[in-house]
Amino acid sequence: MYAFELERPTTLADAIKALGGEEAQPLSGGQTLIPTLKQRLAMPSTLVSLTGIDELKGIKNEGGTLTIGGATCHADVAKDGSYPALSDLAGHIGDPHVRNRGTIGGSLANNDPSACYPAAALASGATIVTNNREIAADNYFTGLFETALDEGEIITAVKFPIPEKAAYVKFEQPASRFALVGVFVTKGANGVRVAVTGASEGGVFRWTEAEEALSSNFAPSALEGLSVPADGMIGDLHGTPEYRAHLVGVITKRAVMKAG
Question: What's an example of a GO molecular-function annotation for this chain (predicted)?
């Protein structure tokens, strides 16, 4: 580790002001950022902690939309239960330490290609709310560890429309509990959405072919004969691109079955 300044604002306004400084970076749960700092892959001169800002925490279910504060930890999302599939997802992120420190805003801002929340946001048609604007999930994820966030922009909340049916299934790497492949499926007023994480070199994506098939018949059998191409899939020591492409089909069927 190296020397840096740590700011602990208690209001969003103070956090935004602190992030206006040179080489300042927001710190939420720190589950990815702290290891990155230890490896000196990032070296900001100032970290601005968001965990002391009460207005960024909490969960509200209003009119069929679940609004979750950006600094809300995974454990609180898991306990809420208003959106069962999302709570189930949160309850299987990492281990108890990660779930009690990591935050939904931090996860979405980091956009790890194997993280779980990006699939939930994309499949749910969520809206990412920042201190400046609201961004539809379809426009938010732009690539590997890349999002539509501007420099210094903070995720203040995430709005999830609660669908009629939904489920998340992941084939996890046992040590990290990240998804080798994770699929979140929803069925609601706006149709069927299928989002895949952990598989693609481009990060989370919607499997539109599966969405079309499931819109006519929301059952695992509707996916027979469908597959995603191996081109562009992640290949590493845990699995080849072909293996991950195969898993997408398998896990999607399991998610549909789990959603009922």
Answer: oxidoreductase activity
